[in-house]
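Practice set, problem 2.
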Amino acid sequence: MSFYEKQLESEKVYNGLIVDVRMDIAELQNGRRVRREVVEHPGGVCIVAVTNDNKVLLVKQYRYTMGEELLEIPAGKLEKGEDPFECAVRELSEETGYTADTWISLDMIYPSAGVYKEILYQYLALDLQPGKMHLDENELLSVEEIDIDEVIAKIMANELRDAKTIIGVLKAKNYLMSCGKIASEAY
């Protein structure tokens, strides 16, 4: 059985700097009508950058929405019409100073499909070369290099709770194991 909902009405209730919010009326398969709040986000990219000695580059920054400092993989918002890969290259360089010779797409994810209309494109960046960070004006962060197995241990201990980081690191580790680039270990 397939499930669907049919949009009957839509009203934009907020236009923001990054997101817009709309209130929709949808019809369910059983004929009932429901309200749906949709946060429209332009989408973004996130990068699992792994050094030749299997360290993951993580950025530490304060996240106002959560009220705490988080360790995350580098990420950024897509500009209108921007190619996700070009955005990933730009964001890795801006936030970490690193560039990568090898890029592997880890495909896309929907970070919070219940409310957000947002797509995040995930990439694995390898064969890294260090450089100089060039952060946006109000971007305050630091870069940490942590062994990929230690990152996974932090995920499993609930010390890292950022969804894009969890998904990206686990996908990257699986990819690297399948290619024989790192030893196979249980999470």
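Problem 2, part (b): a different protein.
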Amino acid sequence: MRTLSIYIHIPFCVKKCRYCDFLSFPAREEEQRRYVQALLTEIRTEAGKYADCIVDSVFIGGGTPSVLPMELSEEIMACLKSLFRFSGTPETGGREPEITAEINPGTVDKEKLERYKRAGINRISIGTQSVHDRELAYLGRIHKAEDFFRTYRMVREAGFTNINVDLMAALPGQTLDSYADNLERIVRLEPSHISAYSLIIEEGTPFYEIYGEGSGGEGSSGEEAVLPLPTEEEEREMDMFTESFLRERGYYRYEISNYALPGMECRHNIGYWTRRNYVGFGLGAASMADNVRWKNLTDMEQYMQRILSGCGTVQEHVVQLSRQEQMEEFMFLGLRLTEGVTRQAFRDTFGSDPEEIYGKALHKLCGQGLLETGESIRLTSLGRDVSNYVMAEFLF
């Protein structure tokens, strides 16, 4: 039996944040309901292709999935359970599936969380990004720090023990001390998992107008005081502090931006980095199965029309990966993990040792102190700082 991961995309949010380039937007409840009906139709249409698979993880992401009326979330979960075989049953055996829902503070209450749990969701990922009100306001978040702490308490009270908290570093106006305070206050809550990543200024976002190339460092309004971005050295100090501080408190870094208590790694995301089969449903959702990659339409009206009229697929950019492309992905995705890429796994997959394929790149990067090799090939601390450069060396 093949294992399969499922991603469900909910593109709705209360308000677009200033740094966000995700496929998300505010929508009225009527539009949300119409979208979910289309989403359910897509799932029912495609599910038969995966009849021989056992689902090991589900990730409901966005956007902000928790903005949906609860009955719509319950419909989605009921649909998945009726059409797919999940791990952890008497028939399939194995461990119970990991089923994650992303939420934002200010979009859930105790009843919604309890209904999430009854629906089968067993992991919650809370997007806070900061616990300083000034930073939250500048990011354009809809919540304040107290909203996050209240939400976290409710998640615990609802019975969830597998909880991730998202935290951002290198924010405008942020110092190492203010970032460290963010991290310390989150760790006191003892989440099982922390995603800690640096702000990236993405083209097409309000922050790009302020901080992007040629912006001149001025906001589009010209009125708001522009907070400076931390320097590259300050950003590196934040990253080094994160690793050492969390290690002392029992969290280990298993991926470039992710830390977990032992045994609490995000199973779904590890599937992406190790190239396990996954299928995405919903607007713009990406998939990879049997070395074929594709992505759904990103235009809402086209997506809705195609599905609700029954006039064709919503999949586009379908690519059958060549052997070389599979090798590239195996390396640059696997190197995101702290344990790196094992030579045996590469040999088992491709019938060759990495040295035979990438000997020149490995010699060069090891000589630069960016990789270390043995039975596994992994990034050094210096290599993580320039990981994009390292991974580009594995492209043919």
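Answer key, part (b): The two ends are 33 Å apart (CA to CA). The CA atoms of residues 11 and 24 lie 4 Å apart.
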